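Retro notes
What went well: the complex prediction finally ran end to end.
Inputs used:
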Amino acid sequence: MTDNLENGTTATQLQLRSAEAITTEERTQLQMVIARFLRHKVAVASLTVFILIVLFAFVGPLLWKYDHNIYREIPANQPPNWDHPFGTTQVGHDLMGQVMRGTQQTLKVGFVVALLSTGIGATWGAIAGYYRGRVDAVMMRIVDVIIVIPILALVLVLAGLTRGTTWWNVALIIGLFGWPSTARVVRGMVLSLREQEFVEAARAMGAGDGRIIFRHLLPNTAGVIIVDATLVIATAILVEAGLSFLGFGIQVPDTSLGLLIQTAQTAVFTRPWLFYIPGAFVIIIVLTINFIGDGLRDALDPKQQMIRR
Amino acid sequence: MTMVTDPWPDTDLLLKVEDLTVEFPTDDGVVQAVRGVSYELRRGEILGIVGESGSGKSVSSLAVMGLLPKTAKISGSAKLQGRELLGLSDNELSKIRGNKIAMIFQDPLTSLNPVYTIGYQLSEAVLAHRDVTKKEAWDRAVELLDIVGIPNPETRANQYPHELSGGMRQRVVIAIAMANDPDVIIADEPTTALDVTVQAQVLEALRAAQQETGAAMVLITHDLGVVAGTVDRVCVMYAGKLVEQGTVDQVFYAPRMPYTLGLLGSLPRLDANRAHRLTPIVGTPPSLVNLPQGCPFSPRCPIVQQICIEQEPDLFPVGVDGQFAACHFHERLIGAKPVDLFPPVNIDEELVASFEAAAQAAEAELQGTEGTHEENL
Amino acid sequence: MPAFSIAPVLVYVLRRLVTTIPVLIAATFFTFILVDMAGDPLLELRFATPPVPDATIKAREEFLYLDRPTLERYWLWLTGIGDTRGDIGILQGKWGPSTQGAMDIGQEISERFMITLRLVGAATVFSLSLAVITGVISAVKQYSVVDNVLTFFGFLALAMPVFWLAALIKEAGIWANQNLGTNFATIGATSPLYYRMEGWDKFMDVVLHLVLPTLTLMLTGYAAISRYQRASMLEVLNSDYIRLARAKGLPNRVVMRRHALRTALIPVVTLAALTVSGALTGAVITETVFRWRGLGTFLTQAIAEYDAFAVMAFLVLAGVLVVLANLVADLLYGVLDPRIRYD
């Protein structure tokens, strides 16, 4: 590099060349990550199941004849049968229509929270880790403040604010408080990354703080952030379910998996399908997301698969 | 056995390793880490095992100690004073480990448990094999620290590993190895992780340990410099096999295997004149998964022939007493120098030129400050 | 053993507490604003039919200190300086008036706290123990059938919504009572006749009420720590000092107990605070399912009634608990790991 500079190569040429190097490098790395992920059989199976569930929740309602509302022609208290594969409720819901809608709302909450919370958390952590000193102290203190309080309590309080809640409100509320753990992890990584030569090099080339943070530091934490995001989705889905269960989440006439379980909790023995089917959906969604996250972690962190001496 | 025999007869032959093979099944296939290694270790002897990292030198000695993970498939034989070690239960082995045969590991920074004092960790080694009181074990620990050259051993014994420097910690590990006067000490890269200045001290401690216990030693290293000054006989390992074996003088001055020659050629030497060029071996060691047939060094070998690709050579006696080499053409290597086989590459010349220019400049500057300016240096 | 002096530890504890107080106060300010925004507790009263006289509404406003602006109300809640009846000011140990009739927040919350503490304490102890045991077994038998089964159950437990599991366990308890002759209590923290019981009966009553909720909280809480324990144990098992301990000739069980477990437990200690926080969150839901009059129902009720000072009381209590758990964890860490120094 220095040789080239001395030989009169312009900075732009150099940048072009290094950019080229980076993209080719990334592609091979991505291929390696995919290869390693595919080796993780449970994760691959989980991804398949998860995609099927996403299709069920988002494409299913377009094909299925009932949605989550009450219909007079639906017979009450039917166990699963051909007309109603998941059975029906006492007041005339088709459970499959309800589960489709509930899964959809639950997933939407999960995705929005993941975007919001990892976005805020990563930016927050990167800024704190990059500037260190006083900025870091203040920002991390704020993180401490939020972490001190059990998240469900915080979210509960805020959910009280928006009674008659929609999935969007629920997602916003959870997303606003889910980020501190992400911030801590990213800050830790940035603290060590910022000492590395490529940051020095970027600064020497005249890159500003913002550019260094968003173009050089954050992309290097991508692996951790992606794995963290899967955890966030899983937690968000469970918190949403808990909120709905306590009556502070998504409200009737809309529905969510948490709400469906809440309605069915006294029917475990009398109408078990109402209780087990939505519960199974929550469990399978969270389970597959966690396994996908596990596979991603192994794929992104080759150290974990190395055979020790 | 009906006869009561001394389980540890006082033989001259301490350790006999025969056809030792270690394989690790992995996702990508079977890693053949060690492929039929045989060597002997006699009383009072220091045997060096030399090779690049990944050549199987550490794995082979861990296999002898029974310290490999359970996934490892080990076959062959390793006899300590005539008694087979391979296949013993972990419980039986634990009575031999640290007692008859001890091991020193590479990284002193991680070899000691951070939550116990070094005195505790040392006396633990004593207590494992001797029926003494804790107090006696502690005194022995302090004595051992003194032997390996740690100042203020009484104070040091009460300290935790993080309070000691790397060199000192390695001396503690050596003290642990000699705690029970073992017959064999295996030292796995004992100086690699240390500063050059500390290396000499640690080697000194090793020598003290050997003299104190009268143990024979296996010294595993990739540092030919350490080998030259310390050991009696050398084994060179490549891709899980011994490729050359002999005394230090035989292997260093009359190597009969191209790989050994290459290793020597890539070693910077102070005694050589300026014209001596480093001759690197081009390429990298083969992957130990699904090795092709033929000599594993053949892809990098400058004198490779058809037969080398088809057939892997055994360790032949080369006609000189006690020297063996695994090369079909070992006879052609009589009197060969590294430069005869491995050409110095271009980059080498540039580097040398730049170093020389820098040296000249420095010299000129030095003379300039002294006031005698010479134009043509 | 090196001389161990208590002075630096005390200094450390004091410094930690001093730096924690601003964090706690900031947290209360932040949540106070949120709670205050949450809604008007007198909304129903204001729009009641037939209309309630203005004087009544004004009296209620005054009673709840709603006649003052938010910031002043926070200051009042924190310090009690400038109150009218001497019933507010958390720093003076006064919790403020409640919207829920004549409820005394301080008395109510301390009663309920003792009930919840029982559950949270039992659940923390059991889930930590279960986590350590399963984590260690998983690590020692890495990639074996046992490890895979334990790992799968761990992931399953992580994926289960607390209330779903709670409802399931509750129904299973009822089923067992009916068919197996067991005597698990499924409703409440104690039976209605608790106050007439004595000694052993009293104790057994508490235990029988605790079993099912504790089981719920234990199963939902242990898995994350178990995974962590497994990773920590694996790291230790693969470490050089374990190899050296084995090379010394120590028997396997000594290596495992003295070197592996002792060292692998250290990082898990830091999770104790997380466990308490998780158990508190879980308790909110578990108590709802099992109809315990504990902190969980206290909170949901307070939210439903727009009872700002009651919600604040819960948050302060939860915050203090988590902070204390954190402090204890850090101190334990220092005791267990000689590399940590208090300076």
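What we learned: Chain C has two domains: 42-98, 107-336.
What to try next: split runs per interface for comparison.
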